[in-house]
Amino acid sequence: MKKQLKLSDFRPKLPFNINYGMADIEISRVLKYPEDYQFDFDVFLPSKNKNLQRPLVWSLLQKQELILSILKGVILPPITILQKAERDVKKSIYKVIDGKQRICTIISFIEGEFPIIVDGTEYYFGDLSKDMKFEIGGGGRGYLRSNIGYEYWNNPISDDILIQWFEMINFAGTPQDKEHLENLKK
Fold first, then answer.
1. Cα(139)–Cα(75) distance, rounded to whole angstroms?
2. In tens digits, what is the pLDDT along the chain, a chain of 186 residues?
């Protein structure tokens, strides 16, 4: 006789709180106030002496398609970040667990590093209308939907737990290099 499956059979118990889709990150605010907000795109794991995140791997076409998807109103999957709260620091540090390629693409487009192509014509961020800029400023209504975990100064999250969370959510998009995932576990 088969055992009845429950959600708890599939959902690992992580030792920290996560707000699923309840918080949004406004990229334009992060760019405008770098003294108050900061993305950590590498997420250094001291016990492993390596970064959780791989380098940027998206092609120009993938970047352009993301921007065009935002403009078409496609709902992007949420990014996953760990918001680190320091004891006496007001700065918000967002450790990017999943979404580095998307966030970096949006930022590099805003900063004029590549164009989108519409009907054979190149358009940079500066060429767009105000409402289009607003949509791209964060990935739909000016924000990126986010799953946010919280790490507090007096209760740090171990590298192994971060790797477990990373592996749990990183199953789609541009596939992870198996060597990178295995190397994280060493």
1. 8
2. 888 988 877 776 777 777 776 667 778 777 878 888 888 999 999 999 999 998 999 999 999 999 999 999 888 888 889 988 776 667 778 899 999 999 999 999 999 999 999 999 999 999 999 889 888 875 555 667 888 888 887 888 899 998 888 888 876 555 666 777 777 777
Q: What does the alpha-carbon distance between residue 169 and residue 38 come to, in Å, rounded to a whole number?
A: 22
Tokens coding 52: 């959780």
**CA-CA distance, 147 to 83, in Å (whole number)?**
10
| Overall size of the chain counted in residues | 186
Among 77, 76, 68, which residue's Cα sits nearest to residue 128? 68
Rounded to whole angstroms, the Cα distance separating 34 from 97 reads 20
Cα 168 to chain centroid distance, Å, stands at: 14
Tell me if 133 sits within 8 A of 61, measured CB to CB.
no
Q: For 107-130, give one letter per residue: b (16+ CB within 10 A) or e.
A: bbbbeeebbbeeeeeeeebeebee
Residue extents of the structural domains in the chain: 16-185
String of DSSP letters for 89-109 = ---EEEEEEE-HHHHHHHHHH
The Cα-based distances of 28 to 66, 91, 106 in angstroms read: 17, 16, 10
